[in-house]
Amino acid sequence: RPYEAALSCTDSLRFLLTPGITLEGHVLQPDGSLAVEATVACAEGPNPQFETTTDVDGAFALHCRDGRLRLSAHHPSGAPVWHDVGEQAPGAVVTGIVLRLVKGRTLAGKVLSADGAPSTARVLLLEGADWERTTLVSTDDAGQFRIGISAKEHTVAAVDEHGRTVRATVPAGAEDPSPLVLTLPEWLTLRGRLVGDAPDAKVFAHRD
């Protein structure tokens, strides 16, 4: 279950486990069939906090922090859906949730490093200008991803483990968009010397 940790400068580390809530249900494809290996995520805001995938029966069980939560589900077979779970008390178990994907289009793409090699990254998709309708998907070992989206315009951003980011726009339309290739920017190395008596100083680079 989700947990919170309190850190101190002592030689011991203590973890405080919180009850959280449990959400259980099924994900269906647009035609009503079971959506196997669909991604289900819960969030208190626009960014998913916890996620899982459905099993061979299209079922999921997700443990989240208590509070006002929203569920989302995505799968290549249809456009993502969002469901407001509402305010839930610690320890609550909510069952019987059904998330049915809607008919949409499929976006396929790949993320590459600056030298053209496949890159492992998280890909964020923003539907229109609504930050409450954000979807996250991870690339596979070949740097590829595939996800269902709606007919609306989408902003797509890929971020690798070093924080390198590339963005693109998928136009609105009813047909599947052309495969998307996202090439991350080249890693920039900065070297310099700090003037003054500060051997342990830290230097930070900020992007405008």
Write the layout of secondary structure elements.
Elements: E1 3-6, E2 14-17, E3 21-28, E4 39-43, E5 50-53, E6 59-64, E7 67-75, E8 78-88, E9 93-100, E10 105-112, E11 121-127, E12 134-138, E13 144-149, E14 154-160, E15 165-170, E16 180-183
Parallel strand pairs: 3-9, 10-16
Antiparallel strand pairs: 1-2, 3-6, 4-5, 4-7, 7-8, 10-13, 11-12, 11-14, 14-15
Provide an overview of this structure.
28% of the residues are buried. The chain is 0% helix and 49% strand. The strands form five sheets. Strands 5-4-7-8 form a four-stranded antiparallel beta sheet, with no helix packed on it. A four-stranded antiparallel beta sheet has the order 12-11-14-15, with no helix packed on it. The chain has strands spanning 3-6, 14-17, 21-28, 39-43, 50-53, 59-64, 67-75, 78-88, 93-100, 105-112, 121-127, 134-138, 144-149, 154-160, 165-170, 180-183. A hairpin with a 6-residue loop joins strand 11 and strand 12 (134-138). With 208 residues, it is mainly beta.
What's this, in brief?
The chain has 208 residues and is mostly beta strands. It has strands at 3-6, 14-17, 21-28, 39-43, 50-53, 59-64, 67-75, 78-88, 93-100, 105-112, 121-127, 134-138, 144-149, 154-160, 165-170, 180-183.
